[in-house]
Specification:
five-stranded mixed β-sheet, 10 strands, Cobalt-precorrin-4 Transmethylase, domain 1, Methyltransferase, Cobalt-precorrin-4 Transmethylase, Domain 2, binds S-adenosylmethionine
């Protein structure tokens, strides 16, 4: 029986998100020295390899063939071949194929080594200005509105910073559903085309970000990451603005009606606004 030393190794290699300057020397060395590169899209990755004069043979490993390909690749590594896994951009397995292959390599006792580099979620978090000590990566939200709203609603009390990937043709609808689920005052960040020519990082309350994206076609172009402040951060950040709005509304309306109007205007939850309206109302009575 072969030992782990005689077996090959699986390298999980990150590639740039767009700017070739982010390709690490170690990624180049590994891609040049392995027996085979397993790529999500061989045509796409062969352009990257050619750019560096690397001629390692490639094999396609994408969502539709991963289950069938894994066995063969594991057999090759058992026989001593080393394989590098790459995706179209960034870190494999992060909203990209490769999980089955990595899991199978572990099960077969084959060493798996990372060659770290770019990842859109982490790059976006690093420039978002939102709490970064604890965060949740949610990948792509569901495509259908009902499922998407349910998904967001289930996350509305999450206290960690939330990170989503989204496509240009769904970003507008997705942001609107976020306003519906999380309220309009929560701080949000849209990180677009990171490391590329049209890189933009917009940091706005969620309702303002949704409005900006709805009216500015450029903000819907390219590759997008959306980040949201976690629930406790949102509560602290939004309270001042909501209290000011409720103070004005309470000149004309009861706390219940003021909360209902504010909920319509901001997308914030009515219960939260009603509690705030009662607090503001009590404060106004005391000061009168
Ligand atoms: N594995 C990749 C990574 O490490 O980030 C992610 C692959 S996923 C299929 C592609 C999504 O990542 C895009 O739809 C977008 O949400 C995000 N993304 C990739 N490149 C990006 C960039 N340059 N700027 C912003 N987001 C990016």
């Amino acid at each position: 029986m072969s030992t782990q030393q005689e077996q090959g190794r699986l390298w999980v290699v990150a590639t740039p998100l767009g700017n070739l300057g982010d390709m690490t020397p170690r990624a180049r060395e590994v891609l040049a020295s392995v027996d085979r590169v397993a790529a999500e899209d061989t045509r796409h990755s062969s352009r990257l390899l050619h750019h560096y004069g690397i001629e390692t043979p490639m094999v396609a490993l994408h969502d539709h063939n991963e289950a069938q390909r894994v066995e063969g690749l594991i057999a090759q590594m058992r026989d001593g071949a080393s394989i590098a896994l790459v995706s179209d951009a960034g870190t494999p397995l992060i909203s990209d194929p490769g999980f089955r292959l990595v899991r199978a390599a572990h099960a077969a006792g084959i060493a798996v080594a990372p060659v770290p580099g770019a990842c859109a979620a982490i790059a976006a978090l690093s420039v978002a200005g939102l709490p970064s000590d604890r965060f949740v990566f949610e990948g792509f939200p569901p495509a259908r509105q009902k499922a998407r709203r349910d998904h967001f609603a289930a996350l509305k009390d999450e206290v960690r910073t939330l990170i989503f990937y989204e496509s240009p043709h769904r970003i507008e609808a997705s942001l609107q559903d976020m306003v519906w689920a999380f309220g309009g005052t929560r701080q949000a960040v849209l990180a677009r085309e990171l490391t590329k020519t049209f890189e933009t990082v917009l940091s706005l309350p969620l309702a303002d970000l949704a409005a900006r994206v709805a009216t500015d076609l450029n903000q819907r172009r390219g590759e997008l990451v959306v980040l949201l402040a976690g629930a406790s951060e949102a509560a602290t950040a939004g309270d001042g603005e909501l209290r000011a709005m409720l103070t004005t509304l309470l000149d004309y309306l009861s706390p219940r009606d003021a909360a209902a109007v504010a909920a319509r205007l901001t997308g914030e939850r009515r219960n939260r606004l009603y509690s705030l309206a009662l607090e503001v109302h009590d404060g106004l009575q005391r000061d009168a």
